[in-house]
Amino acid sequence: VSQSRYDSEDERLEGYIDDANKFEKLVQISIKKTDVGVVIGRFQVNELHEAHIDLITSVVNKHDRVLLFLGNSIIRNTLNNPLDYRARRAMIAEKFPTVEIHYINDNPSDTVWTKNLDKLIGEQLLPMQTVTLYGSRDSFLKCYSGKYNTCELEATTFISGTEVRRRVCNNYPPTADYRAGMIAATAYRFPTAFQTVAIVTGK
């Protein structure tokens, strides 16, 4: 094989690389930044942890307007859902005062849940505003099939909300605020049904 053949192939390869770089730049230019970023999560913790803060901060840095929807269970005061919407809203608003916080009720059907989410988002938008929904690999994204753009963010930190709640249960502070919270949580519980069995004996 002659050296000129190698030279020719090198020139052709350089041309391919140059074309690829130009195409990449064109793609980057053509991707329009959306107007509104949307975050969906449960945030069932006593305080926002590092992964929560990284997620919300990342979206806030990308958009002038951010909507955050809190997943809302119809069953109150369970181990997986101990906090109501108001408590979680206050926690997030304290750290991110510019984020607009709303809630979305749980639904066993992903299709219905997606439809409800699209409706709630649409109610908050101004005419012609565009949207991107953000989540991590194990987030709501796998359940969402709606009309808005989605973006999977690479998680740099993984912290289990279940583990956070377990530690809180084992190391709660004996303070007045804690006692007030326990009183409120007990008051807001649904009535408990106790199952009994009646046995009748006869001669």
What tags apply to this protein structure?
alpha/beta; 203 residues; disordered N terminus; 14% strand; globular; five-stranded parallel β-sheet; 44% helix
Describe the structure.
Mean pLDDT is 80; it is low at 1-13 and 22-31. It contains 6 helices and 5 strands; from the N terminus they run H-E-H-E-H-E-H-E-E-H-H. The longest helix is centred in the N-terminal third of the chain and has 28 residues, at 3-30. It has helices spanning 3-30, 50-62, 85-95, 110-124, 161-170, 176-187; strands spanning 36-41, 65-72, 100-105, 131-135, 149-152. A 5-stranded parallel beta sheet has the order 3-2-1-4-5, with helices on both faces. By secondary structure, the protein is of the alpha/beta class. It starts with a helix and ends in a 16-residue tail after the last helix.
